[in-house]
Amino acid sequence: xxxxxxxxxxxxxxxxxxxxxxxxxxxxxxxxxxxxxxxxxxxxxxxxxxxxxxxxxxxxxxxxxxxxxxxxxxxxxxxxxxxxxxxxxxxxxxxxxxxxxxxxxxxxxxxxxxxxxxxxxxxxxxxxxxxxxxxxxxxxxxxxxxxxxxxxxxxxxxxxxxxxxxxxxxxxxxxxxxxxxxxxxxxxxxxxxxxxxxxxxxx
Amino acid sequence: xxxxxxxxxxxxxxxxxxxxxxxxxxxxxxxxxxxxxxxxxxxxxxxxxxxxxxxxxxxxxxxxxxxxxxxxxxxxxxxxxxxxxxxxxxxxxxxxxxxxxxxxxxxxxxxxxxxxxxxxxxxxxxxxxxxxxxxxxxxxxxxxxxxxxxxxxxxxxxxxxxxxxxxxxxxxxxxxxxxxxxxxxxxxxxxxxxxxxxxxxxx
Amino acid sequence: xxxxxxxxxxxxxxxxxxxxxxxxxxxxxxxxxxxxxxxxxxxxxxxxxxxxxxxxxxxxxxxxxxxxxxxxxxxxxxxxxxxxxxxxxxxxxxxxxxxxxxxxxxxxxxxxxxxxxxxxxxxxxxxxxxxxxxxxxxxxxxxxxxxxxxxxxxxxxxxxxxxxxxxxxxxxxxxxxxxxxxxxxxxxxxxxxxxxxxxxxxx
Lengths: 203, 203, 203
What we know:
Number of domains of chain A: 1
Oligomer: homotrimer
């Protein structure tokens, strides 16, 4: 168990918690809650793998994501009020997850030779598609399209990773650098309520 | 034409009917009704095939699914009231379809070496993703996430099939056993209104 | 740069404009608007490529789609009122795009040996799935399922292309023939408000 893998699992827990909580809030049954946790946790990575032809995709290749999602779903299902009261902790874990998922996304892209812009898109896909599927399944316009610095943090992190890669910088250093950058940017923008511009068209 | 294939087509008819009826109820045009019928019928199998790298996926590999879906759409489009009045028949056919689709899903998973848990997930995907796509396309929270024993019947059926597989039991026997089990569990839970637990959070 | 490629890019601009406008109308942030533009423009082609095993899919294989979508998003974001007032122009470009996308879809299908009906389905997928994803992401029932001659124009165009293909007609001639046919059918049906039949069930 390497450090990146442990951080990846921490991010997976945070993503699964966010999926399971939405399931509980929408009064889904236990299967629905677990499904939403699993989709939120591995939807991004699975889409990424299918898009580059990495078969079998991560959901089948590493059962730890399934195990983590099921365990998290049990916990959230029975103690959801407790989880709701710890939102700050989970937003922090989620920001960490976003940082790690950015790196795994961009790395897979570079390994599968989809070019730097493709690799950056895969960073964004890995970091955001799970949450997008969660929102579609619960009949909401995806949060990631509406506000907050989230996908854009993954995009900037992906670009920095590519620059490090082409500059020949050691992978562990790039990992630490990009994960810290995405994590910090996300945390600061949460605290300062930073967001991208929006056109206000309704009166 | 083997018995499993005939049962598969019966399930396909039932899935296509459920898709076409939703299309008619949402006042979609004839293309929309046919599209919903086809997606409901082969959306699960097609997702399964793409996820394990079985190319071309079932929708292209066997045109009978397309033919059945188009014929069903014509019938439902012109005689939808007649179909609405036969819901009990279609729920029975649907339960049969769920049983057969469970077996095809888990078999493909074992053949493509995604491990037992992966094979069980593919049973659930094959049995439920078509209906999930139908609900997303008609702007509803997927029924399968909300109530009734549906995905969980496919999951249990998939686990039983894997146990039979590792115990070296003949495939035809496993097929009969699992299809009957899923069919019966689904029918009984429909009649008794069984469901998985839900957390009630609204007052 | 061949003529078909230029027409393809014109269609991509039109599809990206329609995505970006929906993003602005739903008050998404700049990332959301760009994402919707990109998904609308290449969602169909990317789904087609994944379904036939053409890896990497078009979104990664040709960056011009990404560049066009980002440039369009900037323009729509800052001058959306200007774009809204030019709807007739964009509907014309969109009809042209539908014609070109029909041909690319059916050609990929024939090249990847999915049979004529599979190739026709890929024409429809290439022409319509981008817009369908756009509508799902903005919590609307996909327009293409509800009214107007749109998917059916791609379907007829796909069938004509297959007939030309099996009759051994030159590809450039088939391209011109099918693109003009789909474009004209779409434009006429827009002007005459043609649509497929719908069952009216609400009082």
